[in-house]
Amino acid sequence: LPRRVGVGPRLLAGRAAEVVDGDTITVDLGGGALERVRYVGVETPETHHPTVGVECFGQEAAQADAQRVAGRYVTLVADVSGRDRYGR
């Protein structure tokens, strides 16, 4: 089950429910709470960008991310800047 990890609100745990692309996933925190998360410090080619479309090696980056985390429990550590401009 998803659980709060450590001390304070900066750490959460949940199941990687969907791999959006190579640097973004959706995490199931339990109780119907889904959180879209972008990895801090990771930049991969786009696969869902509205104006760019699918970039070279974007699908491969998403597949590698899926092999690493899909369906697994992950620990989320909040960045100091909070959410990005897309609410992730």
Strand order of the largest sheet: 3-2-1-4
Note the run of SSEs as H and E.
EEEHE
- Percentage of residues in DSSP E strands: 25-35%
Overall form: globular
Please explain how this structure is put together.
14% of the residues lie in helices and 33% in strands. The chain contains one helix and four strands, in the order E-E-E-H-E. It has one helix spanning 58-69; strands spanning 11-21, 24-30, 33-38, 73-77. It has a four-stranded antiparallel sheet. A hairpin with a 2-residue loop joins strand 2 and strand 3 (33-38). The mean pLDDT is 86.
What key phrases describe this protein's structure?
single chain, 88 residues, alpha+beta
Please write out the topology.
Layout: E1 11-21, E2 24-30, E3 33-38, H1 58-69, E4 73-77
Antiparallel strand pairs: 1-2, 1-4, 2-3
Quick structural overview:
The protein is of the alpha+beta class and 88 residues long.
